[in-house]
Amino acid sequence: MALKIRLARAGTKKRPFYHIVVADARSPRDGRFIEKLGTYNPLLNKDAENRVVLNTERAQHWLSVGAQATDRVERFLDAAGLLKREARNNPEKAVPGAKATERAEARAAAAAAAEEAKNAPAEAAEEASA
């Protein structure tokens, strides 16, 4: 059985609250779980001590048994010192899409044409005076 340490959503609409649980990977997000390890309240400030409450002993046990943590839970475990999470690097994320690139090129071409049109009458006036 593949085990996951993941978040199960609780709370009302627009007021999220999560339970950190160990569950079978095939069970639904808010469905059946094996054990509750803690809670996560994203509405609290990042420096609040009860934003993430985690039973580290049980989390260490489940990691030793082979449970895989999701990315968000990996962040919590890294902060608790139970797991080392490598920082992700996606240099392609900041590259604009095809449509945005086309719009930027069109804007640059229009700006160049406007600059050329602005300079053209000045050049014609210089030639006339010479």
From TrEMBL:
<keyword id="KW-0689">Ribosomal protein</keyword>
<dbReference type="GO" id="GO:0015935">
    <property type="term" value="C:small ribosomal subunit"/>
</dbReference>
<dbReference type="Pfam" id="PF00886">
    <property type="entry name" value="Ribosomal_S16"/>
</dbReference>
<dbReference type="GO" id="GO:0005737">
    <property type="term" value="C:cytoplasm"/>
</dbReference>
<comment type="similarity">
    <text>Belongs to the bacterial ribosomal protein bS16 family.</text>
</comment>
<dbReference type="GO" id="GO:0006412">
    <property type="term" value="P:translation"/>
</dbReference>
<protein>
    <recommendedName>
        <fullName>Small ribosomal subunit protein bS16</fullName>
    </recommendedName>
</protein>
<dbReference type="InterPro" id="IPR023803">
    <property type="entry name" value="Ribosomal_bS16_dom_sf"/>
</dbReference>
<feature type="region of interest" description="Disordered">
    <location>
        <begin position="87"/>
        <end position="130"/>
    </location>
</feature>
<keyword id="KW-0687">Ribonucleoprotein</keyword>
<dbReference type="GO" id="GO:0003735">
    <property type="term" value="F:structural constituent of ribosome"/>
</dbReference>
<dbReference type="InterPro" id="IPR000307">
    <property type="entry name" value="Ribosomal_bS16"/>
</dbReference>
<feature type="compositionally biased region" description="Low complexity">
    <location>
        <begin position="107"/>
        <end position="123"/>
    </location>
</feature>
